[in-house]
Every structure is written in C-alpha cells, then in structure tokens.
Amino acid sequence: MPNLLSHSSSHQLLRLLGGAIVIAILGFLVLPAFVVTLAAFNGKAILSFPPESWSWRWFVKAIAYPDFQLGFRNGLIVTAWASSIALIAGAAFALALERYEFAFKHVLEAVLLAPLVVPHFTVGLGFLILAAQIGVARGYAVIVACHVVLVLPFVMRSVYVSLRNLDPRLELAAASLGAPPHRVLLTVTLPLLAPGLVGGWLFAAILSFNEFTASLFVTSQRTQTLPVALYNYVREYADPSMAAISVIYIMVTAALLIFANSFLGLAKVLNVEHSR
Amino acid sequence: MNIPAERPERDEIAVRLDGVTKHFGKTTALDEVSLHIRRGELMTLLGPSGCGKTTLLNLVAGFLVPDRGAIAIDGLEVNDIPTYRREIGIMFQSYALFPHMSVAANVGYGLRMRGIAKAEIARRVAEALALIKLEGLGDRKPRQLSGGQQQRVALARALVIRPKVLLLDEPFSALDRNLRAAMQVEIKEIQKKLGVTTIFVTHDQGEALSLSDRIAVIAEGRIRQLGAPDEIYRQPADRFVASFVGDVNVLRARLAYVDGATATVALGSVKVLVPARTLQGAAAGAAVDLFVRPEALRVAEQGATVAAQGVVATQIYQGGHVDLYVDVPEALSGRVLLRLPGHDGTSRWPAGTRIGITLAADQAIAFAPAAGGTQIGIGAPTPAASAR
C-alpha cells in the first residue's frame, strides 16, 4: 500500500512538471510576438518594454510611411507571382516524380530540394551576379525568379504528400466509368489534391512575403519588399513603427490561416490528417 | 440470296482473348493465354497470388496493353481502345469510391461522363440504389457507410452504365465472414438478374466454386484448367488444380491395370476406379498418387475391407459435419482428412482410436508421382487451413 501511494504521488508530480514544461515552451514561443505587440503601443519614440504610456500613433505612422507602402505593394506583387508560379511548377514536378519513371529522377529530386540546403544569401547573391551578367536590371522578374527557387521545395513537398495519399485506383475507376484523361484530372485528381495545392500555395505565399535575406541582394530602392524596407528603416530609426508593422504582419498571416482553415480545414491544408 | 452463316462468336462470346502474352521486365505474367467468355456468364479467374489473374483483368480493363495477342469485347478488338471507351464496369477490392462525392454522385458519375440528361441520371441512380437496397442514402458520403454498403455502392456505380463486361477484382477480401457470404449471394443474384457478363478474380477457391458458371484455374501465367465448378472439383486436370481447388488427400497407391478410359488402382485391399487419361504412359504396377476429397473417405465398418489403417489424431467439430484428422502411413503428408456428415463423429471416434478407412466409389483421381520434392499445396490440409 505505501508503495502504491508513493508511486501515485510521484506520478502526480511528473504530471505537474510536464504541464509546467509545456506551458513554458508555449510561452517561450509566443513571447517575442507578445513583447513586440506591447512595444508597438508605446507612447514614447523608443523601442522599450514594458511601455510607460500607450498610443496608436506608431500604427498610423507606419501605415502612412511611403517606403512601407511601397514595400507592401512590391511584396504583394512578388508573392502573388512567385507563389503561383511555384505552385504550377511544383505540382508538375511532384506529379512527374510520383507518377513516372525516368533517367536522373533522383538527380532532379535533389536539385529541386537543394534550396533547403543552400543558404538564402547564396541564392540571392547568385541571382544578383547572374542578373548583372546578363544585363537584367534588378526588376521584379529577378526577385520573382529568386523567390520561386526558394519556395519551390515547400510546394513540391506538399503536393507530393497529397499525391502519395491519392489512391490511383480512384483514377482507374473514373476511367472505367467513361471519363477521358482530362475529365479524370478535373473531376477526381484535382479536387482530391486541392488541400495539398492550397496548402502548398499558402506556405509559398507566407514564405515569399516574409523572405528577407535573398531579397536584400536582388531588390533595389524601387523594388524593395516589406522586410527589406523594414531593415532599411531600422538602420536609421529605432521607434515603435517597426513593432507596429510586425503586429500588422502577424494579423495578416493569422487572417490568411483562419481563412484557409474555414475554407478547407487547417489539418487538411497542412496535410496533418489524411482522409481517404 | 445467301443468308450469312451464323456467327456464334459474335453472338455468344462477349470477351475473347487470343494468345495474349504480357511481360513485366523479365517476368512473364501471362503466357499465350486464350479464353472465350460467353455472354451473361460469370467467369472466375482463380489462382494463387502472382499467377497472372489480376494482369488478365487489367488487360481486359485496358489498364495494361498486351505485348502479343488480341483482346476483343463484343466482337470488337479493343487492343488500341482506351479504358474510357471500352464500356466496362469495374469493382475494386478497396471499392475506390470517390471520397469527395455523395453516394448518388458516385453512382451517377459514369452517366454524367456520357452526357446523359439530369432527369434521366436521377431516375437511373434511384433505380440503381433500389437494386442494391440503399434507397434514401444517396446524400451520404462514402465514409459514412459500412464496408458492405460501400461495396454495394461500388457495384451500383459499375452497373448503372450498363457495361458490356463487369470486372470484379477480389471484391470480398475486405469483408468479414458473415457479410462476405451475404454479399456473395447478393452479387450472384444481381448478376443473374441483369445477365451481365462478369469476370471475377479471386484466390479463394471456396468463392470460386460457389459463385462461378465456369472457372479458369491459372498458375504461372497459364490457364491450367477451364470448366464448370463441379468439373474442376471432381475431374481436376492436373496435380496443381486438384490440390489448389478444395481440400484433398494424397495417398500412395499402385496402378493395377488400365482398361480403356478407366484405370484400376490398388490401395490396401481396395480397388479404386479412376479416369485413365491422367495416367498416360504409366505401366501396370507403377506407383501412383491417389487424390481423394475428404468427403469421399469413410470410416470402414468392422470386418470390411479397408484401403488403409490409421489412428485418429484430431477432431474438429464444424456444426453440420465433423473433420477427422487421421494419421495414415500411406498418405503423402502422413495424415488424411475425413469429412463426416452428422455430429456423432466426435463421440464415436475419439482421438487415439484405431480405424480402417475406405473410399466411396469412383470419386478419386490418380496422377503419376510428382517428380522430386513437393508441389504447392500438395498434401493433407492442416486443421488451421481448413477451419473455415
């Protein structure tokens, strides 16, 4: 009996400790966002924590700041193009890798996944040198190309996993029922791949919109994206506008995820749940 | 005026395979297979896994293209016709229902692909759901249905397009035993009612015997025997068919003499009449293997002549009958199985009893001994294998 008691009390201790650790980890994860959010409402013109007085004015200033407006617009243009191109290319590559056997298949796979290994600044520098070499100005095309390379592996992974979970017999059954290949694609393959496609696109869009390191190399004053604009700002000023922009960033990303969740279910989008 | 001669193959043969060969790399999946399937018939392709039966089904479906030979459906060669224009219905083991569509949308899919008017589709889908007794479940998603219901939906989806051939790929493997029996009866009834030509692939000899009009036993890419279930069971063409289809006992015996189409085989002090065709070239006095079904063996009455003596090893009570496993030295595996009707077997011959065994007349078949080593499936069944 005493043995059993001591066992159960040590068990309880472990549970408490475990709970505390989980809360500590979660706290640690949200701490930066929490600190920045509070700092954004600082009444004074310094980045400090905790703030001594409260104000909205940094949000107003940040939104009105021309460089941030330009960066936001550039970021949207680059993200829209880069994530959409990456989605089409990534889906095509994933389909080829999953469905067909061909020479150098593993080489192609390795090359496509290489950006995960190569540092972003290397990719950025590479594109900068290339663009200079072939005489292309640092316009949107170079930034979009650079972002496509960086986000492609994520789109590919996402679509590839969805494809692996797609029973090929569904397509065979559709064919047996009289569906020619393009109708099989439209009525069976694409609807069942939709979560993977949307998930891949969402990943690509968020990564592209937040990308800084490579963008620093390939953007100019005219084409700088929002993270680059923020960097340029923080080199000269240290007021809470930065923090305000960060809060807007978090809100926009969260809104995007909530939208995706209500549209498809986040579990499906992130390929956590495999429904058959 | 000359009336053209009757063309039976056009009218009676629904699916025709002539000299069909298929290789996968260096393996030969199908080797010069010819098979003519009659209109309205339920033809079973039976064989162990990897024998080529699924390859044959995939060739008829158009999922694969033959290396050599011709496949014709309704007299029309389909070698170059893609699956979606072959007018076939297929039901997979996994059912392959479209998970993002309702039951009604699944069943109506083939009709939509044919551009049929909405009202007509609704009418035919309702008709199909009534046929499989799932009226009122049209709005459900497949995952909300039980395994048996999903299978019926898959069947309705395949049948609603009125296919020229219905292909069933191991359809009962995923079902539990009770449901399996019920589904077999239901599918057989629907198949007969609609008169749809059906090719049924299975590795389960029990299913094959109970459902088929004819069975093609396939091994190593070739058809070993083609015939009605009773013919396959009673007059197997070779050792493989005899041991793959149904339980069988193999006993060492001697050929006494051959007289026309009948041969006489001696086992103990019993003479057994067997067909002579399976013993071509064997001389009188030669050793032969006698294949006897469990229900053709009897326990000998006291003082009667016996074919062999043995000791009861195990009894398995099966409800309607009793399976008696008897250790017999003459058996190739050292043990035979007797299937005795009634339920008194357990008390009359408890384990350890010494009994004489005799044979019911004319129900055995003999083959020359296997050349070296054992073959697949040869020998007395084990209790585990036959306890269905």
Characterise this structure.
The complex is a heterodimer of chains A (276) and B (388). Chain A is an all-alpha fold and 276 residues long. Chain A is built from 12 helices and no strands. Chain A folds into 2 domains: 1-40; 57-269, Orthogonal Bundle (MetI-like fold). Chain A is globular and about 70 Å long. The model of chain A is unreliable at 272-276 (pLDDT under 50). Chain B has 2 domains: 8-234, Rossmann fold (3-Layer(aba) Sandwich); 248-381, no CATH class. Chain B has 11 helices and 20 strands. In chain B, the strands form 4 sheets. In chain B, strands 6-7-8-3-9-10 form a 6-stranded mixed β-sheet, sandwiched between helices. Chain B has a 5-stranded antiparallel β-sheet with strand order 13-12-11-14-20. Chain B is globular, with a radius of gyration of 25 Å. Chains A and B meet through α7 and α8 of A and β6 and α3 of B.
Regarding CATH, which class of the largest domain in chain A?
Answer: Mainly Alpha
Helix content of chain B: 25-40%
Strand content of chain A: under 5%
Helix content of chain A: over 70%
What is the level 1 CATH name of the largest domain in chain B? Answer: Alpha Beta
What gap, in angstroms, lies between the N and C termini of chain A?
49 Å
Radius of gyration of chain B: 25 Å
Report, as a whole number of angstroms, the end-to-end distance of chain B.
62 Å
The count of helical stretches of chain A stands at 12
CATH topology of the largest domain in chain A: MetI-like fold
- Largest sheet geometry of chain B: 6 strands, mixed
CATH arch. level architecture of the largest domain in chain A: Orthogonal Bundle
The biggest beta sheet of chain A is recorded as: none
Oligomeric composition of the shown chains: heterodimer
Strand share of the residues of chain B? 25-35%
Q: Averaged pLDDT of chain A, please?
A: 84
The counted number of beta strands of chain B is 20
- Total domains of chain A, how many? 2
CATH topology-level fold name of the largest domain in chain B: Rossmann fold
